[in-house]
Amino acid sequence: MSGQGESRVALARGGIVGFVGAALSAVLGFLLSVLLARLLGSAGSGVVTQATGVFSLVMAMAKLGFDSAAIYLMPRLRVDRPEEIRPCLAYMGTLAVVISLVVVLVLELVAPLIWGGDDPSVRDAIRAILWFIPVGALTVVAAAALRALGNMREYVLVQNVTLPVLRPVLVAAAVAMGGSLTVVSLSWALPFAVVLVLSWFLLVRHLPAEDRTGPQQRWPGRGRRRAIMGFALPRTLSAALEQGLTWLDVLIVGLLAGNGAAGVYGGASRYIQAGLIVDTALRIVVSPQFSRLMHMERIGELRALYSTATIWLVLFATPIHLLMAIFSPCLMLILGPEFQPGSWVLVILCCGAMVTFCAGNIHSLLIMSGRSGWAALNKAVVLVVNVLGNLVLVPIMGIDGAALSWAVCMVVDAALATVQVVHFLDVRPVVADVLRPLLGVGACAGIPSGLVALALGRDSLLGLGLGILVSGVCLGAMCRLMREPLHLSGLGSMLGSKIGRRQG
Question: What separation, in Å, do the N-terminal and C-terminal C-alpha atoms of the chain show?
Fold first, then answer.
């Protein structure tokens, strides 16, 4: 089998595992959102959403980009210097905990100044949940190393099964026992402690033993530490800015329009995050492969892998968001009647997401090329635009303005990364790679589901189910008929080989 064929099959194998894990995580995350909305209402869920948003934003900074550094570095060390894997992990894990504690102590003092109004619920929830940040930071570093060292199943078990399964269970238990919003927020963070133990237990089993690599240092050398920090620090800024783009609009809506509006907007944005299962699954798989192929200077295979990943992203991610946009009133009604004003928010967010899919996994390609500084610069520019957009549009348009600002920023972010990847790597999106699956999705998902919505109504749960069914059948038929142009032969071959082995 050719190198391109091997990469495609590897992408398919890892992509299926990653997709199943991401899909399960998305379903459980959606279940959590429904629980919060139904049990706490828009205002109560708005408080918890803001607390968890601050947690996610702060942890993105506190982990210092060591999760991305692990994904970038581990595949390279496995090839060239396996004896440095353990010292590098010890270095990154220790610094992540120390920096996290410092950040928490600072924010413990700052939180009352930002959320110091008459309603202390948001402030109290944030101050309580922040103390789980060191645990969360260490967890994501371990999970990233597990992913980078090639054990996708165990990564999915840790990150996509254990963590999202525990959250709705503990949140429901906290509400059932009459816990305050602070207690509910803590129940969201508590699973990190369980996942931390499991992650490091699984990771240690896959680290190279000393008898195979020779004596190992306790700490990496000065040159390696500089290399780690040189990659991680720009990525820290980039990751913090990414989380800022995810959560700052929710926080600004909460500050300007109240906890109820934040809850409605957070419910709509949660659908978007759940809908990104394909993007997440592909990113998990392709990032280490991008790093490996660039390290080995196999640029032809890199272009082929990026092309395949782009086709699959458009083909499998766009229908999800298209259906969400068409049936947005039904989806928001699932959260509760008071969430239905967020229908147009969901439409706008879906449109922004679908446009960005046309660039493929462009951000992963840029970061894995070692240009995390450029990625950070992009996020900084986009975040400034997003904050200004929110401050201007939210007072005028309400939560619809926040959605419009986010959608525009996502498109700008993808455009900037695309220009840079073309310049630095000479890897570019191919129009045919995007246009072919996009037209297919429009014909096989957009038209049938649109007709169903016209007949039964956009707020019809029956219509949503029928739209999913009809679109799924049509898309399945298209994928079978066009499997070669859509690069699905690798996927089919891999599945066939698995079935053959099981039957044998």
Answer: 22
| Two tokens, residue 243 | 């989380």
Angle of helix 85-114 relative to helix 66-80, nearest 10 degrees, comes to 170
Other CB atoms within 10 A of residue 438 CB: 18
| pLDDT tens digits for range 290-318 | 877 887 778 888 888 888 888 888 888 89
Q: In residues, how long is the chain?
A: 504
- Residue 220 has phi, psi (to 5 degrees) of -65, 160
Spell out the residues 6+ positions from residue 18 whose beta carbon is closer than 8 angstroms to its own: 152, 156, 280, 281, 282, 284, 285
Exposed, middle or buried: residue 37 (CB in 10 Å: 0-12, 13-18, 19+)? buried
Burial bucket for residue 386 (CB in 10 Å: 0-12, 13-18, 19+): buried
Task: Output the six-digit token pair for 170.
Answer: 């503990």
Fill in the amino acid letter for 254: G
How far apart, in whole angstroms, are the C-alpha atoms of residue 196 and residue 476? 39
**CB environment 45-72: b (16+ within 10 A), e (fewer):** bbbbbbbbbbbbbbbbbbbbbbbbbbbb
Measured distance CA(341)–CA(61) in Å, rounded: 33
Domain boundaries, the chain: 3-495
Alpha carbon distance 169, 166 (integer Å)? 5
Contact 148, 71 (CB under 8 A): yes
Kindly write down the DSSP assignment for every residue of 302-359, as one continuous string. Answer: HHHHHHHHHHHHHHHHHHHHHHHHHTHHHHHHHH-GGGGGGHHHHHHHHHHHHHHHTT
Radius of gyration of the chain (CA): 22
173-226 pLDDT, tens digit per residue, is: 988 888 888 888 899 989 988 888 888 888 877 676 654 545 556 777 777 788
Task: Report the alpha-carbon distance of residue 235 to residue 58 in Å, rounded.
Answer: 14
Token representation of residue 224: 């390696």
CB count within 10 Å of CB 503 equals 6
